[in-house]
Amino acid sequence: MYRPRRSAAAEADKSDTERWLVSYADYMTLLFALFVVLYSMATMEKEQFSKLQDTISKVFIEATDQQEKGIQGQSVQPDIYPQSDFELYGSGLEQATGPTLLADNAKLELIDRTKLGSPLVAVQKEINRALRSLVESGLAKVTLQDDWLTLELNSGLLFSSGSAVSTSSASAVMTELTTILEQTNNFIRVRGYTDSVPIRTEQFPSNWELSVARAASIVRLLEQSGVAPERMAIEGYGQYAPFAENTTAQGRSQNRKVVIALSKYAYEPVAKPIAEPVQAQSATEEAAEQAVEQEQNKIRVIRLPHGGIRITTRPPEPGEEEPPIQQREQ
């Protein structure tokens, strides 16, 4: 059977009518890729997503800065793990508006800033689970912000009014908390806060002493429960770092608290040198050493060759003379 051949014009018209399929296929491919990226971003951990977001932002910001300054030939790829300017105390602390009391500052300056402790997100979940009843009743609050995980505890839960003696409920809370802190190696800061109502007692002349004493009381409880004391330090803020207004009873209640703060950086124990065993000495050797030491520390009056005297503890040099004992006693 004879089939008439299509003309070239007819073939061209057909190809023109089917070109939209190419664009449609490209559009569907891009749309599929977009949904894949959105899905992967939705399933990422919050902390990982923040790190990715910061890295991407830093790339574009540095690229823009270098273009504006006319810098060429330099890579704008940032360091994935940059060195942190983190400070263990000072400007890096939340509510750090007053003087800070810290233990062993010399050791804190030797901290390896690249050594991280246990993940704070996991510790936050454990604390929320262990202190769930306190959190739901408003007596405790767990917050994760920047480099610190803070546990705020109302002073009424831990102490009597105007006192720094911990109650039985404070011991129970610290025992429960220690089971979590023992599994970590993060630095711990215990901070004491008070309201603005003055206190003038023989034990606490001001709110400064009260806030520090309460923080020290919690540190002792944690130490007795098994937390390494080298990880902990005490901070007292008194009434000068309020969380709420002191004009109302509710605000003053919110300002009376103790905050246990965990740093994201870890404490690294310092190896102590092994003391060499001391050999026992006989009584004769000890007496001889004491006699030599007394002779070396003996005060002498030395007569100089050209006149005059010198008072010293060392023996006479050549040419010098030590007067007889009888003359010195006159």
UniProtKB/TrEMBL annotation:
InterPro entries: Bact_OuterMem_StrucFunc, MotB-like_N_dom, OmpA-like, OmpA-like_sf. It is found in: Cell membrane. One of its GO terms (cellular component) is plasma membrane. Residues 146-266 form the OmpA-like domain. The chain crosses the membrane at residues 21-42. Keywords: Cell membrane, Cell projection, Cilium, Flagellum, Membrane, Transmembrane, Transmembrane helix. SUPFAM superfamilies: OmpA-like. It is a single-pass membrane protein. It comes from the Bacteria. Pfam families: MotB_plug, OmpA. Residues 303-330 are annotated as: Disordered. CDD domains: OmpA_C-like. Its main location: membrane. The keyword Transmembrane applies. Belongs to the MotB family. This is Flagellar motor protein. It comes from Rheinheimera mesophila.
